[in-house]
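[SOLVED] Need 3D model of a two-part complex

Original post:
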Amino acid sequence: DAGVIQSPRHEVTEMGQEVTLRCKPISGHNSLFWYRQTMMRGLELLIYFNNNVPIDDSGMPEDRFSAKMPNASFSTLKIQPSEPRDSAVYFCASSLALTGGDYTFGSGTRLTVV
Amino acid sequence: DQQVKQNSPSLSVQEGRISILNCDYTNSMFDYFLWYKKYPAEGPTFLISISSIKDKNEDGRFTVFLNKSAKHLSLHIVPSQPGDSAVYFCAANPRADSGTYKYIFGTGTRLKVLA
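Solution:
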């Protein structure tokens, strides 16, 4: 398996533009997580899905952020409009179950909003 | 507020010596803990875990200790090797019957092992 695949690896955009981050989880994993890494807060959980259904989006910072999982093999995280403070590395992770075990992370998308 | 805290942002250790990375948590509902290792430009990878029913778990050079009364866990790496240089994240998961199922991560500790 190729692991969790995220695209793009790097994204530079201007403030106010829409940004879409993509994730393909490991085949057979039924839980998917979006995390954001910053120096100040480390890895923050934004939202997670179980069997394609959003379970907890309490970590989504603002209404500008939205996430979808239309099927078991694809998820998107969208920021509209983007702001400089959204600059961070965004990670997607998947796992076989919600609890226990470990997550498999993608390589992340480094987002820079100028 | 940070429910999982790694108060040392960085640590330098000589090759061959012991590395000790610390993690504190505030929520007594947490009962499963993990350590992840992250190299630059890569995603975090799972390293070792411990359940609250144990106070120690060992895997090769890596040992995690859990002190529930102090709400503290630590990762020991012995002997440390240059390839261990990375950022280490501590993560905690609440009990399954708590109704939530999300790992809470700390801010990470950057370990540098000097050759």
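Edit: The first strand of chain A starts at residue 5 and ends at 7.
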